[in-house]
Amino acid sequence: MLRLLPLLCLIFLVSCNNTPSGSGKNGNSGGEKKYRLAVIPKGTTHEFWKSVHAGAEKAAKEAGNVTIIWKGPLLENDRDGQISVVEDFIVKQVDGIILAPLDSQALIDPVLHAVEDGIPVVIFDSALGDEKPLVSYVATDNRHGGQIAAQAMAKAIGGQGNVILLRYNPGSESTEQREEGFLETLKNEFPKIKVISSEHYAGTTPESSLEKATEVLDKYRNKVNGIFAVCEPNANGTLAALRELDLTGKVKFIAFDPNESLIDGLKKNHVQGIVLQDPVMMGYEAVKALVAHLNGEPVEKRLKTGEYVATPENMKEEKIHELLHPIQVD
């Protein structure tokens, strides 16, 4: 029996060392947990979201133990559709949710549901009405984006004249911040600039924006000196309206977020400025923040990703060129 004791001790030690070091919700075992993270944009068609997706995938690849599940509503006015996507991921018990809420109020309850079920949530792009349950909020400073849009407009029209603000969609916190930043900066810094129209919502598609921009520009065509559109689909429709009404160059145009059509407009001086975000960095930092939280590391409650203005004069500078042509996931 005494001879068996060393052998029994050895067997016991080997058995203890082979115990799995941890397992996540999905039954993963081994030395490193595997995370499934749901990333839910406002929509899936615009180029901005494809760049966010690219940033999220970049962070996941660097982490090595993260799988991104990318899913959102097709259109950016489908609140019920986005709520359904969130609820579906709760049922599937993903390890975390990264969400750009279509509506700052309508998505509060689904987010609370996720957190109550033990699924941490990071918000990106557009704020949620209740930030207490969140791991972090990763976004552009949209109010500052509106402020620099106002400054670009003032420069384009020589510090005086009449301008139009074309709004996006009620409930979208990010664009509401841009609108407010634009209006307050014109009021406080440029008293010789008058806002002659700011009540119109252009909607969530280039088609609806073309219709509304055409209507408003035609009404004020003999008075207006400049127009600001607060996001990519609105800017697309506005540029098309300016071209159809033969107002390019005559009415100075500041856009928000680039695409190939708007960049072409910048080259031709049909667009005098494009406010730029960093969507790749937004997706990247949102995934990094959630992974850090899951690993028990501290995370800042607010992460800003920067705002810039592209003009015909600076569009070839390295940083501006990079933001005008961000990487994308098709």
Explain what the structure shows.
- With 330 residues, the protein is of the alpha/beta class.
- The protein folds into two domains: 33-140 and 279-305, Rossmann fold (3-Layer(aba) Sandwich), CATH 3.40.50; 142-276, Rossmann fold.
- Helix content is 43%, strand content 16%.
- The protein has helices at 5-17, 47-63, 79-91, 108-116, 142-156, 173-189, 206-219, 232-244, 260-267, 279-294, 318-324; strands at 35-40, 66-70, 96-99, 121-124, 136-139, 161-166, 193-197, 226-229, 252-256, 273-276, 302-304, 308-310.
- The strands form two sheets. It has a six-stranded parallel β-sheet, with helices on both faces. A six-stranded mixed β-sheet has the order 7-6-8-9-10-12, sandwiched between helices.
- Helix 3 packs parallel to helix 4 (108-116) and helix 5 packs across helix 6.
- The radius of gyration is 24 Å and the shape is elongated.
- Counting DSSP H or I runs of 4 or more residues, the number of helices is 11
What do we call the CATH homologous superfamily of the largest domain?
Answer: Response regulator
Assign the CATH topology of the largest domain.
Rossmann fold
Backbone CA Rg: 24 Å
Q: Give the termini distance in whole angstroms.
A: 68 Å
Mean pLDDT: 91
What class do helices, strands and sheet pairing give? alpha/beta
Name the quaternary structure: single chain
Percent helix range:
40-55%
**Number of beta strands:** 12
CATH class of the largest domain: Alpha Beta
- What is the total domain count? 2
Give the percentage of residues in beta strands. 15-25%
